[in-house]
Amino acid sequence: MKIDNGQLAAFAAVLQEGSFEAAARRLHVTPSAISQRMRQLEERLGQVLLQRGSPCQPTAAGRTLARYTEQLALLEAETLAELGDADGNGLRGTSGMPLRVPLAVNADSLDSWFPASFDALPAEPAMVFDLRVEDQDHSATLLREGVVMAAVSASAEPVQGCTVEPLGIMRYLAVASPLLIAQAFAKGVNAASLSRTPMLAFNRKDALQARFIALLIGPDAEQPMPPIHYVPSTAGFVAFAQRGLGWGMMPEPFVREPLAHGTLAEFAPRRHLDVPLYWHRWRLRSPALDAVTRAVRQAASLSLRSLGARAPMRPSRAGKER
């Protein structure tokens, strides 16, 4: 069965833009043309591919097709580049636009070491990036469904159709303002003092603080229930801590400067959490993905701690990384 390229393009545009109207603007056609192409594609495949809404979402069959369309677009652009683009556009799609590369990255990586990856990218192939901030479980889903081509994750488990390689360790330190430490932990860091001291969490999936408490007081001890500030911003996380509003687990690169300046301090020195990070990518021969992988690998090697011979420390199912 042959699938019409125009119908595939309409399907991909609706998923990426979220609506028929936005897809029509992107492809320079009318919304009715997009609707007609989608109807023809669904009739041809005999399955509903899109859940119409705001935004439009793929059905189970649509998710399978979405991965195929992303891989096809990547292969098409790279094949045209290898054959020689008559317009001299380098590695670009048939629209003449740079190749779109969707990636999933956890928030702490995106706000620390990951941007340095773009320093090592070559000028060609020409690429634009669609970055998704996702936790480890969802990033695996995005890879399976073809929403992203690669992802940084704390999970070492390979996704079907993808390869995985270790990047390094993100070390998290328990920090707070010196004033809060003096007031809250004057008699020691224990279950009683931790239960009274406000705590910071990135969101309700952030279990790093709970894991650190278990490390301090023992995994079998009853966990204290401190007051919690939810701060879904890495910069805000540091700012809240510096102002004495609570303590939290923060990546080493974030707090080097505040620790040096004395606006933050560790209240449990020599105790920390290490989270291994891994790079997952489609198992697909692709110069573009190869270039991104090399750049990510280089940036990680300069900022993350080496895994070495250390056995991976996997977060619990509830302990998703930020």
Automatic annotation (TrEMBL):
Hydrolase is among the record's keywords: no
Pfam family, one: HTH_1
Keywords: DNA-binding, Transcription, Transcription regulation
Domain HTH lysR-type residues, every copy: 1-59
Superkingdom classification of source: Bacteria
InterPro entries: ArgP, LTTR, LysR_HTH_N, LysR_subst-bd, WH-like_DNA-bd_sf, WH_DNA-bd_sf
Record-level Gene Ontology MF annotations: DNA binding; DNA-binding transcription factor activity
Similarity remark: Belongs to the LysR transcriptional regulatory family.
Protein name per UniProt: LysR family transcriptional regulator ArgP
